[in-house]
């Protein structure tokens, strides 16, 4: 089915607007037929308008086919300001955070292709904590339903994408009840996927393996906090946080964003690597292709993937995070040029 998509665009904070504009430029060059609807939220929005999200944000968001999002700033020093990312995940029920990590020749520390499927709604991110007479307490919530849903997602993702192995990451040797539940439910779900090997790994060993033997990994499924931390480690193995994108999947909608944050240290300088956001846009094209059976988007996503690797590996149009001196706009122009030559070849 071919249709005109409605894509929500949340530019976010810090480098967000720079990299989201870059991704929109590339989507345009690919000839994506879409109405882009701007959604406004963020810390900068809050400073200007006194509220974190615009009126009716979720009503509009829920009508979109997908949302392309930039990173949002959460100030650690302002205790009253709650993470908008977590609010969005809760409200749109984005339970799976899918982060593919594929090596770039000449930049990554090893040759690998693995995916972290991070449970995206539970764990310590439920934000229930308090300070009682000098003792800080945080609740870590793992539910049977949440663990089952994410395990099912990880296995079906592995099956669809040709991975032979799914590994559950936990610390059930210490957290016997909470991580124990996450682990046990995983193996219960695994029984329904006899063609896929189900393995387990303790989270510290997972960190070690990502660095030492990432080529051994397939799909990893993790509770929320471990997935958050391991993702940045995996991004370092890829070569830069600025190269990695992610998909936050819900039952009705999905939100696509880079793995990295708002990078306040380089915001406004025009040197942010836009590829993480463009990778997110690519994941969005795959998602829309699957959801609406739009084969043209599959071709476009593949072309984009090829173009990204050409620009980084062969043409070496690199921003400073990759050791280059090029600007965001140079990467975008190079990508558009490669895409145009692919289209006309
Ligand atoms: P960060 O990921 O923003 O930056 C870490 C380092 O990576 C910095 O040196 C930064 O310059 C570099 N970096 C990140 N993205 C880059 C890019 N595209 N190109 C070149 N270099 C890049 O992490 P940080 O500084 O700890 O977090 C800043 C803010 O971002 C925090 O408020 C945090 O809460 C927020 N954040 C938001 C996320 C989201 O919206 N999904 C995810 C992670 C963090």
Structure commentary:
- The protein has helices spanning 16-30, 43-49, 57-61, 84-91, 144-160, 178-190, 203-212, 224-238, 275-292, 295-314, 328-343, and strands at 5-10, 34-38, 66-69, 94-102, 113-119, 129-132, 135-138, 165-170, 197-202, 219-222, 245-250, 254-258.
- By secondary structure, the protein is of the alpha/beta class.
- It folds into 2 domains: 1-94 and 241-345, Isopropylmalate Dehydrogenase (3-Layer(aba) Sandwich), CATH 3.40.718.10; 109-238, Isopropylmalate Dehydrogenase (3-Layer(aba) Sandwich).
- The strands form 2 sheets. A 10-stranded mixed sheet has the order 2-1-3-12-11-4-5-10-8-9, sandwiched between helices. A two-stranded antiparallel sheet has the order 6-7.
- The structure holds 1,4-dihydronicotinamide adenine dinucleotide.
- The site of 1,4-dihydronicotinamide adenine dinucleotide has 22 residues, from loops.
Strands of the widest sheet, in order across it, are: 2-1-3-12-11-4-5-10-8-9
Query: In angstroms, what is the radius of gyration?
Result: 20 Å
CATH architecture of the largest domain: 3-Layer(aba) Sandwich
Which of globular, elongated, flat, extended, rod-shaped describes the shape? globular
| Class inferred from helices and paired strands | alpha/beta
List keywords for this structure.
single chain; 345 residues; alpha/beta; Isopropylmalate Dehydrogenase; 2 domains; 10-stranded mixed β-sheet; two-stranded antiparallel ribbon; 11 helices; 12 strands; globular; binds 1,4-dihydronicotinamide adenine dinucleotide
């Amino acid at each position: 089915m071919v249709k005109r998509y409605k894509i929500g665009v949340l530019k976010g904070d810090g480098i967000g607007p720079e990299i989201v504009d870059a991704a929109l430029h590339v989507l345009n060059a690919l000839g994506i037929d879409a109405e882009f609807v701007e959604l406004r939220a963020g810390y900068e929005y809050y400073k200007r308008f006194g509220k974190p999200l615009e009126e009716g944000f979720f009503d509009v968001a829920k009508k979109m086919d997908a949302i392309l999002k930039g990173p949002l700033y959460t100030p650690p020093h302002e205790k009253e300001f709650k993470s908008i990312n977590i609010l969005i995940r809760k409200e749109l029920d984005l339970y799976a955070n899918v982060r593919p990590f594929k090596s770039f020749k000449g930049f990554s520390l090893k040759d690998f292709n693995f995916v972290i499927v991070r449970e995206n709604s539970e764990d310590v991110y439920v934000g229930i904590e308090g300070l009682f007479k000098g003792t800080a307490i945080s609740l870590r919530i793992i539910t049977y339903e949440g663990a089952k849903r994410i395990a099912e997602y990880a296995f079906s993702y592995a099956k669809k994408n040709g991975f032979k192995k799914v590994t559950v990451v936990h610390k059930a040797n210490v957290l016997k009840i909470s991580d124990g539940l996450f682990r046990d439910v995983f193996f219960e779900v695994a029984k329904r996927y006899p063609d896929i090997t189900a393995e387990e790994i303790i989270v510290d060993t997972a960190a070690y393996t990502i660095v030492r033997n990432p080529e051994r990994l397939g799909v990893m499924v993790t509770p929320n906090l471990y997935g958050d931390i391991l993702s940045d480690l995996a991004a370092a193995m890829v070569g830069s946080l600025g190269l990695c994108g992610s998909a936050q999947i819900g039952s009705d909608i999905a939100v696509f964003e880079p793995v990295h944050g708002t990078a306040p240290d380089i915001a406004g300088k025009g040197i942010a690597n836009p590829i993480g956001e463009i990778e997110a846009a690519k994941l969005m094209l795959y998602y829309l292709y699957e959801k609406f059976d739009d084969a043209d988007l599959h071709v476009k996503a593949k072309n984009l993937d090829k173009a990204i690797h050409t620009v980084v590996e062969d043409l070496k149009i690199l921003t400073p995070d990759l050791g280059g001196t090029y600007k965001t706009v140079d990467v975008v122009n190079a990508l558009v040029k490669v895409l145009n030559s692919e289209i006309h070849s």
